[in-house]
Write a structure and sequence with these properties.
Residues 61-102, 133-170 form a coiled coil. The protein is an all-alpha fold. It has a domain at 29-222. The chain is 91% helix and 0% strand. The chain contains 5 helices and no strands. Helix 1 runs antiparallel to helix 2 (112-128).
Length: 297
């Protein structure tokens, strides 16, 4: 019996030590889980903030896209208006050129209509092509030369009243068309400005979106690791409960074994006292209490 009891105590102590280790592991998994959950929350906040920035950049890009499209509409509208005025002016200049042919050339220069067409081409090149400063200066000088030739020819027609009226009307149309051309240039530059801002906003949105995707990836990784630690924590808790059941049962059994052993010892001593009593010896108070504990009285 003594050997069995000693074995039970040894097992009990071993189980208690194992339980302590599992409890330590459980706390470590719990702490690690909490750290990873906190880290996942940090990555989630970063991701959400970056997604918010991405939406802002996209909204700003869309805003500038709408402004660009509106400016481009203005470019097309103003071009159409300018072209109509130039066509009307060209028709008048054509009449003037016909007059010049009918009444003999007053100069060896090309007709006013052709000169204006040449100016239109040069202005279009100036507006649409990427030019060096030197090339742009050449175009400007060429335009001034052509305008000078036009003024020279116009001066030659000033003496004819009918031609003078047509010439003045053509000049006014050309002046209005030139003003519209300036507005075309302004609208085209404005459209380009909005386009550049839009492209930059989309570039920032792409960069912000990439950063948000990276934060989300880190969030998922941290969350998965936290879930793994939580499962390990749950496993430790289950193992601790199993230890508690075994340890509780073993303690109960050990206690019962110890009580039984004590009861047997009391019984044996009581039987000896009872035999002495039967032999005629007197019983002391302690003897009586001992007999009562052994349930012999």
């Amino acid at each position: 019996m003594q050997t069995g009891l000693r074995i039970e105590f040894t097992m009990l102590n071993e189980l208690i030590e194992k339980r302590k280790k599992v409890l330590t592991d459980s706390e470590e998994h719990k702490e690690k889980r909490n750290e990873l959950n906190a880290l996942a929350s940090t990555f989630a906040r970063e991701r959400n903030q970056l997604n918010g920035q991405t939406r802002e950049f996209v909204d700003e890009a869309q805003k500038n896209k709408d402004l660009r499209d509106e400016a481009n509409k203005d470019v097309h509208r103003l071009k159409d208006e300018r072209n109509v005025l130039n066509e009307k002016a060209n028709a008048l200049f054509e009449d003037i050129d016909k007059y010049k042919k009918e009444h003999g050339p007053v100069s060896k220069n090309r007709g006013i209509k052709d000169l204006h067409k040449q100016i239109d081409k040069l202005e279009t090149d100036q507006q649409t092509r990427v030019l060096t400063k030197e090339k742009e200066r050449e175009i400007i000088e060429k335009i001034e030369q052509l305008k000078s030739q036009i003024r020279e020819q116009e001066d030659e027609f000033e003496q004819n009243k009918e031609i003078h009226v047509k010439l003045q009307e053509a000049r006014d149309l050309r002046k209005t068309a030139s003003d519209l051309h300036d507005k075309v240039t302004e609208s085209a530059e404005l459209a380009q400005k909005y386009h550049d801002i839009m492209v930059e906003c989309y570039r920032k949105a792409d960069k912000s979106r990439e950063a948000a995707d990276e934060s989300h990836k880190k969030f998922v990784e941290a969350q998965e690791q936290a879930d793994e630690e939580h499962q390990k924590f749950i496993g430790c808790q289950k193992e601790i409960r199993d230890f508690d059941k075994v340890i509780g049962g073993l303690r109960k059994k050990t206690k019962k074994t110890k009580v039984t052993k004590e009861q047997k010892a009391v019984r044996k001593e009581a039987e000896q006292v009872f035999q002495q009593f039967r032999s005629g010896e007197k019983l002391t108070t302690d003897d009586i209490l001992l007999l009562q504990r052994a349930k012999l009285l």
